[in-house]
Structures are given as structure tokens and as C-alpha cells.
Write the C-alpha cells for this entry.
Amino acid sequence: AIQKFVVDLAIITKDHSIFDDHTPFETERVQRCKCSVIRNLFALLNLVLSGKVGHPTSPAVAHVRASLLSAPFFKLLVLCTVSPRSIGFPTDIVAATKKTQSSLSSSSQSSQSSSSSSSSSSSSSSSQNKENNNSTSSMTTASVPISTLTSSLLRSLGGDTDIEMVEVLYRIVKEVLALPNLDITKLDYTFSSIKGNADTLTNLMRGYRMLHDSSLLLIEPAAESIASRLVDHCLGYDPVQLAIGKEALLMALSLGLSGTSLLNLILDDTLVDVSNLKTPIKRALGKSVRPRRTAVDDVTDASRTPANESNATTAPYTGEYLVQRLTKGEAFYSSFHSILDDFIARRFSTFVETIVSSVASGNTVAFRLLMGSLDRFTKYKHLEKKIFLQSISPFLGMIREWATGEKSSAESRECCVDFSRKLLRLEPDLLTTSLEGHQFITKIFDHFMKRDTPLSVKIDILSLLPGILAACERATKSTTDHLPKIVKERLNEMVIYDFPINSKDLVKGSKTYTDYITALDLLLASLVSSGSALVLEILLPVLREKDHAHQSTLSYQLEVYVTSVSDENATQAWDMAFNMLINGEHQEDLKFMAVSQICVPLTRHVSSSTAIQIFSKNVQILVNGLLLPSSSSSSSSDGGDRKTLLVNRICAYRLLEIMYEVLPGNIIKDKINGYFYDRPDAKGTELTQTVMRAAHATKSETHPTDERHVTHSLIWQYHVSAYRALAAVVMCTQTKDQFYNVFLFKESKDKGELLWENIVDLQSEFKFEAETNFPVVSKLVTSLRADASGSPPEPHVYGGANKKTSGDIKFLSSQYLADSSLSQDVDVLGSFFGSAGASAGDKMETSSSSSSSSSNNNKDATSSSASTLRRQRTILSQGDRLEMDPLNNNPCMPTILAVLDAMESKFGTIYSSSRDEMPRWMSEMHAKFIARETHPNIVMFIAKIIINRPKIFEPYAQFWLRPLMTLGSTPSYNGGTGFHYFLRDICVLLLRWQDAIPGGMEGAPPSTPTKSASSREREKEEKAGAGAFMSYLVMCCPHPTRQILRSNLEIIRLFAERWRGKFNVSKQSIVDQLGRTSSSSEKSTVLYRLSGLHILTILMINDIPAYDKVNDAEVNEFKFYEKLLDNVMFKRKEVYEAAAEVCGLILAYHEKETEKSGVSSSALDMYVQLLKDKINIMFGNQEYDRALNCLYKIGAHNPEFIKLWYLKIFSVLPSLIGEFKTIALRLILLHASSIPELYMKLKSARFESILHHRDADTQYVLLQILYSMRNTLDEAQISHIVAETSSVFSNQHPSESCRSLYYDLLTWVYDEHKEMRNVEALRLNLLRGFNDSSETISKKAYAFWDHHTRLSEDTLTRLEQMFTEMYHPDVEGSWVHSASSLMLQLTSASPDYGRVMFDKPLSDGLFKDYNIDASWQGQASSMTPMFAPSQSQEDASIMHGMMARDFAHGMAGGIMATKAPQFSATMASSSGGG
């Protein structure tokens, strides 16, 4: 049977006549079955030949060999090898390509130890045979590729001992390969006519390789000829042709192509014509042959700029390059580089001399081949790197000469650097393990980093720096003793001669700037990756620039370096920076930078043991050598010497400060003091005493200044550094509050010991802005808004309950401050945080008052910005981040805040025992704050301290309230005019303090100081101060940005609510705002007028009249009302509407006051008459929109005023459209129940047409009017209204509010007019409420009908009513549901309705398994309840006799019936069916 299959079926194709009567599907199925059988036959024979199945001499094995090993089988085997598709095995070019890669990988792994082509082929064959056999035995037959099976069989058969069988196999191979389509010698290597035969050619070449590996290929094609033809034709290959070409090259290599011949083909420099190539091919070739700039591409991740700064100047080249000149070797290598690289890498030692010689002669493809081999050794672990290193080492000098010689080019330099970098990547220890490698890298670096080399060239060499620095650390003295010296010299030369003194001198985007930034990034990357102190020292001149063009990256990289450097490298860097400090050769700004950006952050980063080691070694020099110099140097008259002395002291204080900050006091006493004072009488406190004594004296020292050396800024830094060091020492070592007060807060004018004048910069002038983006204030304002939400409390009455002063008065809508009607009301108090929220259109065109900060806050003091900010965030115990405004930028601010936190933590319980007296340290601050001679900058600085720590000062708010209000209302002391953010900070502070009420809180408990004459006087002064403060806020309230204006108004509102009755506001500012005019900016006029109108509203709602004759005498009352009423006639809608609302508020307020006093004001009568005249003018001018809007706004607060205008409203109602008609109806609604003959007036205005108009708002207002006037209507009028409304709202009107009010109207008619209950239309529309889409309306309908006056509470009667009164054909769809619900609703009247069904929860119940007979027989009887036959009790003793017959069948444990079946069969179960 096997022989018949092999002879008759195996080799036939689907075109054979045997398949003429088969469908394509059947033919394909037969082919798949045939291929499966062939697979199994091959697998079986493979097992037999390998000896894994049966003994070789057994009869069964002999039978298998005799049955299969014949000429037909060999023909099948060879065809499956070279042309599996002709047999029926599917394949494609993609699979072939993957197989090529797999073959390439396996070939390189199996041949790595070979040194020649022949020996490699032999070892590869045996290895491959073993692998194939193993894989065949471990995989299922269906999953093994046919090529694997055939390859294994060919190897086994080729080495068989049966000479006769092998000769037959040779003959068959020769016959098959002689077929026209299988003769490889006649192949056209242009592959131009492959069309759909790409997979056929691929398998043919793979088959030849397998036959060669099995030694069955008697006549082998010439490998050199194949390779030569590939070289000639590869240039025009498309991707499919290239895949075939790769298989052809692999075949040539397998057939014995010599390495020398292959290398000659690669190095062939014969030019080829590229003019006829297509552009995509030129572009592809250009990418592979174009030289690259490698330095930028190799910048590590650590050197990349942070997210907020993009370094576009160092982006790699992205443009296209079309090749113009190409050699045959370049074309050949570009097409097959992966195969060629692998082949050469495995034989690198053989070809290295030829390759390097070609590189030295200028052959570019030779260098690409060298780099490809190097990449292979780096990528694949099975290739031993020592082979490459040993082979290349003798020729490194030749490569160096090629790159550095007289004939070298820019391309050769870049290639050499690229090679050097990858060589270091392959072997990082190259500089220490190889003398040749060390000399090569060192001389390359030294040559290209010379002074006369352009920076653009040095950039490439800098990419080698991380590897060189790493080698310097691992270097031995015998090889690299001079390397660090060379690196340092060359890098120093680059920084001195190639880097600019000021980075801002270079034009951004220029080539010089780009090269500079790229080199700087590479140095920073090397610093981070190596942690080398050498690179840090090189970068010091760059780091000292205060405002570098690359500052963000510099700060980020330095921070990364500090946080990642090891303690050993950190110690070296610390010592290097400290040596710069004690070395008199360096400039002062370099010393500042070394201490602030290196020593301080490194001290925080290192471990405590390392910090102890650092300071133990240097404390003697730090204190005696820097802090306490000889008297002769301190009294020197030379300005330069004095400056050096002060700089050294400043740096010494800074280092001592960080020492006391990071180390505990006992460690300093036990382990460091001994290095400072090592005498036998040492107590351990000598160092601390010396530092405290020196710092305490320094913070009050006076020094003459000059403009060149000892500047005011330097003296200020000197005092600040001493104060910060003293504070650090006190916090670290002292436990009594008197030390804090004496050393850190107390002044002595008599002794000339001034504090605040020395630590606060008095030369700067602060001008604060209105807008800010500070998160601290944002958080506080959010909490204030939450506290003030809802009805305003009575904060000035202790424990007072929330109550409304004027329940009918409301604040003006915030829509008047929106840019358009589509604007949403934004977060009111949070709106001023950040200028991004303000649109450009919100800015006034006039020169406004928003000014920028002009503070020159000592530029030298901010030179350590990065580390200073880090310290500020670290030192604050409360964990908050300060907003870096000019006041908080003072270096002493975080120190003082840390001191306050420390005192609060240590002595808080002592301070909280009495609130009648401030602590001594606070008294010192308070005295300085209120002193008349105190400089404004000091006052603002102390105020900022209070703002930053409000909780510490809150218990003593009574002492600080009046001075803070005075500061807030004094522009010369608070940072300029306007509602700027510092004034806002003061406002937020006072609002946060619950006890900050002018005059104190009424009804205070006994703990509050009782009122005396002095306290009453203080209360009077505080109220006067509060009035001045509020008047100033009102004056500063307007702002050209709407969001800031809203926030200003909200702050004034919060003060008015909290301080109600405690202040009076000057109305002059409000009058000025109401009368504001600007010819250049209408928006400015609008915002000013809106500001005044809103402020009036805030005052009135808090019981402050719009005009008070007693307190507002400075403003003429008539002028005040005239200015206000002028705004009613203003052309902008938001202004006249807001003014109308204010007029309504005034009317409501005075009406209330008149009711209280019983006396009417003549001025008010005059005001009312003027307002009437304004409205009449509007109607006379036919400005109906303005008139109606104004009346509506007035009526919202005083509806009585509207009664005068109904005649005119009704007269214009028919002609109104849109929102104005709605407004007119709303005005009518205000008095709908009292307007005489309202129905007839509406009828004459054709209210039916209004009702049918598709405007939900208008319809709803009209429904409200009809509902309000319902009691004045007769039956005919009601019937008319019901009919009209039903035609509009009965069919699911889109507005839920309209439908709800409509059903309210119907229910009223049904209840109040019983004679209309029989009207079918009324009942039907009420029944439709059950089916309403709104759940609220549906519930309302059920509640309406479920009442004893409408439906009976008797069950049977109600059931009858369900079929009579509650049924209508039009609501039949919802009748079943509504009727069932109304019937079940009767159960709620039962006394057991609310009783729980079970005494215990279900989780405590005992559950049992019950059986249910769900068979169909028990349910076949008509009308039998489901499961009735199986309903039973588990206990048979209480089984009912009525149970059905099926229970007797054994369904014990079923569900017990709760009730016997009540339905009888309508037809006997035995009756015949029809």
C-alpha cells in the first residue's frame, strides 16, 4: 500500500486528470490529506533511520526500509526538498524570509568555532542533523516543517552504508535537478520574471543547500559565479527579489564561496550607474551609505532636558539623502549586510588585516563592514568579544592614523569616534586591560580635543567621555596614570577657549549656540553617568552663571547628580569645592556657587557617617581659618581683601548652617567638637558656643560699603548668612525659649544691635501685581468660600446663629460680570489665580494700574536659586511650599518660619496658657511692626511672616488686627496702589482669623478681656480703622480683568458679612465708580460701574443703607441717587439691569425701614419719582426691552413698584416677541392674583396663541399665571382654560415643569369643581398622568387617585371603580399596571403593613435542599399550577391527602403546596384534541 501511494498518488498535482470530477474544495482536501501522509512517512522513516524505533536488524525495520527506500520514494523526497509546492505543500515568500533569518541565526550559532569554510560546513552539517533529529522527535508531525523532515532524511540517507541505495539516490537527485525548472545553473539572477514564483525559487535554493549539506550534490554550481551575478544585479532588487537574493547568497556560502572571494566582492570599488535608479531606491541607499553625526545621537537619557524645555537644536538630521555615487561593493553590502556581517564576524581574525588595510586606504564599505562585525560581537553573546579584541588590537594604530593623519577627513573622524565608542561599549575595561586599546583611545581623545580643534569636532569626541571617566576610576597606575591629567587639561581648554563667558551672548538657533549647548549636554550626561568630581570641577565656570540660557537643564542635571552620586564620589566633589573656598585664587562668585550648589546639596544627600567624616576633617579650617580670621585682615582698608574676608565668612556660615541642620546636636558634641577643641578641659560645647558668639555678633555688625567691592548686597548676605547659621544652631542645640528670643528676635538699639534692618533688604522697592498663581493662597480662599457659603452668619456676636437680615434681598447675579450670556459663573474667589484665565479682551485699553514687580532683590543673594529653593522646601516643618514672591525670596524667610514651627512644637503649650499677653518673641516683632520709624520693607516682611504662619499668630489676633488693617489701607507700606496680591493676602489672613473682629465679639465668654474705658477706646479706634480699611478696598476694587474684579467683590462681601455693624464705608468711591466715563475704553466704564453697583448690593444686604445721612454727608444725597439712576439709562444691558436691581434693593430696604419707623423720607419719595420718570422715558421711546428688563429686575426685590405699570405692560404685550414676552408675563405673574379682570385682559392679549407657541419658558410662566388666578375664574372660563391647556400639554409635552404644573391645575379643577368630574376630557387627562415619562409626575398621579375622596377604601368597591372610573380606551396600555398598583395600595392600611416578615435576617436562617419535579408529565394537565405534582413536605407524617398522584413516585423532599390548586381543567386530559 505504501509503495502504491508513493508511485501512484504522492507525486500527482491538482492538475492531474484524476481530479477532473472533483470540486476545488474536494481537490484541496485530497491534497492536504496527501501531504499529511507524506509527512507521516518521512517522520516514520526518520525515526527508523535514527534507530529510535526498533532494532536496525529487526524484520519490521527491514520491511520499512525495503518498502520505502526505492527510486519513487527518493524522487518524492528530492522533489519535497527542492520544490515542495509542486507536491502540494503550501508556502509563501514571507515564510521563506522568516526561515532565512532562522537559518542565518542557527548557522552562525553552529559554526562559531570554525575558522574555514569547509570545516565550518562539515561541523554545521553534523550539528544541524542532530538538532533536526531531536526537534523531529520532540514535536508532533503536523507541526514539524517539511524542510526539517527532508533535511534530516537526506543527511541520514547520504551517510547510509548501503552503497547501492546511495547510488540510486545520487541518480535520482541528478535526474530531478536536471528538470528545466529546477536547474539552478540556468537561473536568471535579475529575478525579473519571478511574478508568482518567488516562493518556488526560495525553496529551490534552500533545497540545493540541504542537498549540499547532505553530500548528495554531485555537480555543484559555481559559488563565485552566483555571488558575482548577485553583485551585478542586486542594485535594482525590489523587496521580494531581495529576499530571493539573500537565499541565493546563503546558497553560495553553503556551496563553498571562499571568504577571500567574498571580501573582494565587498571591497570592489568599481562605480556603478545610479542615474536610472528610482527615487525610493536612491533614498534607501542614501540612508545606508550617508555618514552620521554620532555624538548627539548617543546623548544618554540623563542628559535630556526636563519636560518644560525642549532642546530642538540638538535634534538629529531627519532630511532625506539621495545617493549620487555608488560602488559595486557598497551596493552589494547595502543589500546583504546582515548576512555578510555575520559571515565576516565568525571569521574576523582571518579578514581583519584586509579590512583594516582597506579602511586605511579610504574604502568606506570596509569601515561599514568593520562596524557591522563589531555590532555582531556586541549583540550576540555566542561570539566571544575577546576574539575581536585580540584580532583588532594590532591594527588600532592603523585606524588611528587613518582618522588623525594628514589625509584624514571629517567623515573619517566621525567614523573613528563611532568605532571608539562602540569599542568601549563592547569592552568597558579596554583602557585598563589592553595597552593598545588604552593608547588608541587616549591618543584619539587627546588629538581631537586640542585647543585649535573646532567645538563641532570636539562634540563627537565628548561621546567617549563616560567610558574614559569610568576607566579612570578603574585604571591602574601602570597604564593610565596620565589619563586623568590629559582629560582634565583638554576639557579645561574647551571650557576656557570654546565656551562663552556669558551664554546669553550667543544667538539662539545659531550654529555656535547649538554646538555649545550640545557640548554642555554631553558634559552633563557624563557627570550624571560617572559621578566624576573631575567633570564637576570642569563645569564650575558654567554653573556660576546666574541666569544661564540652559539654566533649567543645568539645575535638573545637577539635582540628578546630587541624588545619584555615591558617598565616595560625593566626598571627592565636596573636598574639591571646599578647596576652592579656602584657595584665594578663585573668584568670589565661584566660591558662592561651589558652596551653595555643591557642598550644601551634597551634605544633605550623603549619609550621616559621611557627613561626620567631612566636617570632622574640615571644621578646624571652617571656624578658625574662615570664620575667625585675624584682626589685621578684618581691619584692612583694601576693598578687595575685605570682600574676600566677607565672602569666606558667608560661605563658612552657610556650611555651618547645613552641618547643624543635618546632624543632631549630640553628634556634633560627641564626634565633631573634639576636632575643633581637643584640650583635656573640653566640655563638648566649645564649637557651638564659638559659632553662636560669632554669628550673634555678625548679624548686627556694621561695615562701610563701596560701589565696587563691599557692596550693600554683600553686607546684606553677610548678615543673612550669620542669622541663618545662628538659627540653625539654636534649633539644633537649645531647649529654652529665652535663647530663641534673645538670639533671634530681640533688638537693642542702645547697643546698636539691630536685627530686621540687617536681614531685610531695604534697598528694594516692591510693586505687587494683582494676578498670582500661588497654590497656598488658592487653598486658603477655597476654604474661606466654603465657610462663607449659605446664609451669612452673625460673626460679631459670639456663638450667634445664622440668620438673614433681609430675607427678600439677594445679591446681584454674577452674570453681569460675564463676558457674554453664554459665560458660566466661574469659581469666584479662585478666579484670580493665574492670568491664563483672563482673556485678552478683558484688559483695559488705557494705561492701567497693573504693575510688575520692580524689586531688584539682591541678585547675588539669588545665585544659589536651585539649592536655596530645595532647602526652603526641606526646612519648613509644615510641609508647605512658599510662593516665591519678592518677600518670600528673602533667604531668612524659610529660616524664621522653621524657627516659629520649632518654638510652636517645643513651647506651644506654654504660649497657649494665656492669650491676654503675647510671647516675648512676638512682642518684639509687634513692637517693630507698629513703630513709626520702621522701614516699609520690614513691615511687609513681618506681615508676610504672619501670612505664612497664621495659626501661630491667630490666638493674638486682637493685638495684630489694627496694625494689619492700617498696613492694608496704606499704599506706601503695602506694595503700591490697587488690589494686589499682597493686599489680598492680608484680607485672607484677617478672614481666616475668627477673632479678628473690630471691637471684639459681643457676648464674649469670661475668658475674653472685659471692656474697660481703654478697651472701649480701642474698640472705637478699631472700628474707625475697619472703616478706613473697607473704604480702601472699595476704592481699589475695580480691575480691568473681570475675574479679578469678581474675586475682589467676593472678598469685600466676606468682610461685610463678618464685620456687619462694625464699619462704615465712604460713599465717595462708589459715586466715582458709578459715574465713571472713559472715551477710550467702554469696557473700562462698564467694569467700574458694575463694581460700584455690586458694592452697593453687598452693603445693603448687610444692613448698611445705600445712603446714610449721618455717615455719608460728604456726598450729596441727590447727587448720589442721580448717579445711580443714570446707570439705568446706560446703553449696555449688563449695566442698566444691574442698576435696576440695585434700585429695587433700595426700594425694598427703605420700605422695610419705613415700616419700622413709620416715617417716610422725602429724599426717597424724590428717588421714586425720578425712577418712575426714567421708566416712562423708556416706554415713551419705545425701548420696551429696556423698560421690561428694568421693571423685572426691580420687581424681583420690590413687587409693589410694578403695579404702576400693568396698563402699559398689557398694551404692549401683543406686540412683544421672544424673551421680552416672557419677561412681561413674569411681571404679570408677580400680582396675578390681585390684578382685576386679568382673564379678560389675557383674553384680549390672545393668551391662547401664546399658550400654543412652542416656547417652554413662556408656556410655563403663562401656566403659572393661570394657576395663580384660578380662584377668580368661573366655570366657563375654567372649562375654556382646561380645553386650551389640554390641547397643548396632554400629549407628552417636552417640558416636565410645564406638565407638572398642568396636572396641578387639573387636580385643582377636579377637587374644587365637582360638577366637572364627569367631563370625560378632564378625567382622561388625569388618567394620562399614570403613563407620564417623569417619575415625579407619575407618583403625583398615584398619590392623587389613591385618596378616599376619589377612590373607595373598600376593596370590592375600588375593584369595581377600576373597571368604571379608572378605565378608558385611550389609556388601556397603562391601565393594568395602574389598577394593580392602586388595588395593592390598600394593603398599606393594614396594621401589619410595616411589620417585618422575619424576626431574623436571612443570613441567620437554616437552608435545606428541596427537590422539584420539573418533568413535563406533571404539567401536561390543563390549568395545573407549575410544580404542583411535587409540592410536599419533607416529613411524610404531615403530608396532605390532596397532593397529586405523582408524589407517590418518590419525590420526597419537594416544595410544600401553600394552597391546593383552585383551578379545574377546562378539558379532560384524556379528551381528544382538535
Q: What stands out?
A: The chain has 67 helices and no strands. Residues 24-49 form the longest helix (26 residues). The radius of gyration is 50 Å. The chain has a mean pLDDT of 78.
